[in-house]
Design a protein that fits this description.
The structure is a single chain. The chain is an alpha/beta fold. It contains 19 helices and 13 strands. An 8-stranded parallel β-barrel has the order 1-2-3-4-5-7-10-11, surrounded by 6 helices. A 3-stranded mixed sheet has the order 6-8-9. A two-stranded antiparallel ribbon has the order 12-13. Helix 3 (53-70) packs parallel to helix 19, helix 13 (307-320) packs across helix 14 and helix 17 (406-418) packs parallel to helix 18 (445-463).
Length: 521
């Protein structure tokens, strides 16, 4: 059940606060409590959510921006040419699951299995982006986006996962890309965002080494077809998510719960698939095409910024991501990882490790939360992850703990330990209990709070020379949020899933202002 938004009664609250302010002025010399001080601040902040919504917010932000620009301050700016984008994924937004020869994916199967998703929700229609992409690109244009990250539905290109291609498979992406380029928005393409063709799952999915080879075939075909317009390809999105959620705890498709040994082998075949796809893209893409992947590392963050805790976080980044990012960038599994698994360690060859660690042009980082780390000399790895107190703040999704420092430390540590020279924040955003008010607005001030705090930490990193070249907000639209169905909204555009009406939220006005300034807002 969605929570009620605090902004719904702002007008009444403001009137009450104005009365209290008069009383406080009379008593100022006698008593000024912290509680009253907080109420005064709340009254000032509350004016941003008065009726008028996005238009009022834009007017206020424009006024504040003019004042800041008049002072000549550039301290809050991002570098010239910094890219501002948004991100989506095929199964979460496209719909049209039975159109133009698309084959079923594991998410079609999983979501139609009773009890697997909230309210039995499926991505059959989702945001109907397949038919409404022009409207959605119009939203991007209004925001001022300079780039857009999307993913290809593998089973639109190869309905059986491999073999015969679907002649109509590329038609949608061709139309969408042409419209996107007309809007002067650069496309960044993800090849695998979790929607494995069901026919490949029937043959073992990522438990079968042949899936990695099938993925490479698909990647090469897509790169050959699209690289005249797409110059940045990401092989996979969040290896950890689809391996752990899909094969360890079974909360995502295909819904399996493997033992430790089989899970480790799945992780190995997943990174092997990435490596083989890199080779295929290099072989088939047009010259100048860049290749990377979108990772969601365990974002080790020093609990206190002292040398010992920072060093511990650097060790944690390697060890906690040993089966994904570390093996990709270093070409080997860490000794601690292999020792911990013992006889359950994955089977691999030196040639596979060479393929997995093929050089990359860039790295995408998906950062939503972080894990605080402290130095621990008693630990064999020299660090310990700090257990979160029960009072730790989180957004509407109970896993999304607020840790803005992660957007500083994740790219900073990655750049140092793996010598990455080009990075993008390929996902960052949050869920909110969004409510469309009677006046037709969504006052998602909590999302603005989240974004502002995280962007401040990103600005800190970029200002220190960390090579982050762009930021993709998740997400442009409320969409199908996997096992949570349509319960948790991550978009800066409210979508009425019954009518498909799009309504930009207050956070959309905030992001537009960030883009306009190329700086914090």
């Amino acid at each position: 059940m969605l929570k009620r938004r605090d902004g719904e009664n702002e007008t009444e609250n403001q009137a009450e606060n104005e009365t209290e302010n008069e009383t406080e002025n009379e008593m100022m010399t006698k008593r000024f409590s912290r509680r009253k001080f907080g109420q005064l601040l709340g009254a000032a902040a509350g004016t941003a959510a008065l009726p008028g919504g996005a238009a009022l917010a834009q007017a206020q932000s424009a006024s504040a921006s003019s004042a800041g620009e008049a002072s000549g301050s550039t301290a809050r700016k991002f570098p010239q040419g910094f890219l501002w984008g948004s991100a989506t994924a095929s199964y979460q937004v496209e719909g049209a699951v039975h159109e133009d020869g698309r084959g079923p994916s594991i998410w079609d199967t999983f979501s139609h299995t009773p009890g697997k998703t909230h309210n039995g929700d499926t991505g059959d229609v989702a945001d109907d982006h397949y038919h409404r992409y022009k409207e959605d690109i119009g939203l991007m244009r209004e925001l001022g986006l300079t780039t857009y990250r999307f993913s290809i539905a593998w089973s639109r290109i190869f309905p059986e996962g491999m073999g015969a291609r679907n002649p109509k498979g590329f038609d949608f992406y061709d139309r969408m890309l042409d419209t996107l380029l007309e809007a002067k928005t650069a496309p960044y393409c993800t090849l695998y965002h979790w929607d494995l063709p069901q026919t490949l799952q029937d043959k073992g999915g990522w438990q079968n080494r042949d899936t990695a080879k099938a993925f490479a075939e698909y990647a090469g075909v897509v790169a050959e077809h699209l690289s005249d317009r797409v110059k940045h390809f990401m092989t996979v999105n969040e290896l950890r998510s689809y391996v752990d959620a899909g094969y360890r705890n079974g909360v995502h498709a295909p819904g399996l719960k493997l033992d430790r040994k089989d899970l480790a082998q799945v992780a190995h075949y997943a990174v092997l698939g990435h490596g083989l796809a890199v080779e295929a893209i290099r072989a088939h893409a047009k010259p100048g095409t860049k290749v990377g992947f979108a990772d969601n590392p365990q974002a080790a963050t020093p609990v206190i910024e002292t040398p010992e805790h920072i060093a511990a976080s650097e060790r944690a980044m390697r060890e906690e991501n040993a089966m994904f990012g570390t093996v990709i960038f270093e070409g080997k599994y860490t000794d601690a990882y292999l020792k911990k698994l013992g006889a359950d360690a994955p089977k691999f060859t030196a040639e596979e490790l060479k393929t997995i660690s093929a050089p990359l042009d860039f790295l995408g980082l998906n950062v939503y939360t972080g894990d605080f780390v402290r130095a621990d000399e008693s630990s064999p790895v020299g660090y310990a992850t700090v257990k979160r107190p029960a009072s730790s703040p989180h957004m509407y999704s109970d896993w999304l703990f607020v840790a803005p420092e992660a957007l500083y430390w994740a790219p900073k540590i990655v750049a140092k330990i793996w010598k990455v020279k080009e990075m993008y924040i390929t996902e960052n955003g949050c869920s909110s209990a969004d409510v469309l008010t009677p006046d037709g607005h969504v006052y998602d001030s909590d999302r603005i709070m989240y974004l502002r705090n995280y962007m401040t930490q990103l600005h800190r990193a970029v200002s220190e020379g960390v090579p982050v070249k762009g930021y993709f907000l998740w997400s442009l639209l409320d969409n199908y949020e996997w096992a949570d169905g349509y319960l948790k909204r991550f978009g800066i555009t409210y979508v009425d899933f019954e009518t498909q009406k799009r309504t930009p939220k207050l956070s959309s006005a905030y992001y537009r202002e960030v883009i306009r300034r190329n700086g914090l807002a």
